[in-house]
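Lecture notes, unit on binding sites. The following record was shown on slide 14. It pairs a sequence with SN-glycerol-3-phosphate.
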Amino acid sequence: MMYGVFLRYFSFTLLLVSAGAAQCVEPIVIAHRGASGYLPEHTLEAYAMAYGMGADYIEQDLVMTKDGRFVAMHDINLESTTNVEEQFPKRHRDDGKWYAVDFTLAEIKTLSVHERLKGRFPVGKSRFEVPTMEEAIELIQGLNQSTGRNVGIYPELKQPPFHKEVGFDVEARLLELLERYGYSGAKAKVYIQCFYPDSLLRIRQELKSELPLVQLISGHKMQADLRTRAGLEAVAKYANGIGPDKNIIEKNPDFATWAHGAGLVIHPYTVRVDDRPAKYATTKDELQQLFGVYKIDGVFIDFPDVGRDFLDSLSTDSLSTE
Ligand code: G3P
Ligand code: CA
C-alpha cells in the first residue's frame, strides 16, 4: 500500500519536472473543442461545461467569416456541425460544400450547431449557436473573474493558406484580437497552435509576438520532417511546445524524449473516453501511460472531467504522503 503511494508520489514529482532540464511545468488539462464529449463542440455551452469541470485551458479552432470575424469551428466548411444545408440550400460551392468564408457572421448566427459524433449529445435537441472568438474569450474571462480562477485559451488557426488566398491575414488578426483582450507577452494564459510552421514563424519572427506557441504535428507524410529529432530542434527555435497526434508518441516513445530534450512542452491530441485505444482497459490507464511513462505536459481531451480527476488524484496522493 505504502509502496503504491510512494510510486504515485514519485511519478507526480516526475510529472512536475518532465519538460526538459530547464523547465518545470505543472501538467494541464486542455478541453478539446470544449467539453465536446458531452455537448456539441465549439459552443459556449461546451466551453462553460469544460470550465466547470476544471479544465486549465479551453480550445477554440478558428475560421473566418465573409465579413472578417473569427468564429470557433473545426472545419472551414459548415455542414458537418450545423444545419446550413437546410438553412441555405443553394449557397454551396461547385464542390458541394458550404464555406464559412462565404457567409457573414449574421448569417452564421442563424445556424444551429449539432453534435458531430454518434452516441454523444442527441442531434436536434436544444439549440446551440456558433460563437465568435470574442464571445468565447468574454465567457472564459468572465468566469475567471467570478470564480477567481485563471483558465487559459488555446486558439488554433485553421488552414491559414486557404484564408490567405481569400484575402485574410489571420495571424495578424488573431494577435490584434488577443492584444485587445489583454493577452500579450510570454506569460499570457494562451497557447496559439497551428499545423502550419509558416504561420507560427510569422507570428514569432515577423509579427514579433512573444505569446506561447505550439506546433501541431500529425502523422501525415507532409509533416515527416517535424517528427525527427532535428525537426523538433528546429521547432524549438520558434515555438514553446508541440501538439502531436498521440499515436506518434505511442509508435516512437523517443519522440517525447527528443521534444523535451529540445525544451518543448508536449500536449498530445486527442484522448476520448468513447474512442479508447484497444490496448488500454480504461482511459485512466491511457492517461497514466501518457503522463507517467511518456512524460507529457498536458493533454487535449474531449472529457475534461476525466483528465482533471486523473491529475488531481496524482496531486492528492502526493499530499497524503507528507
Ligand atoms: O489542436 C489539437 C487538435 O485539436 C488537432 O486536431 O483536428 O481536432 O483540430 P483537430
Ligand atoms: Ca484543434
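Take-home: The first helix runs from residue 2 to 16.
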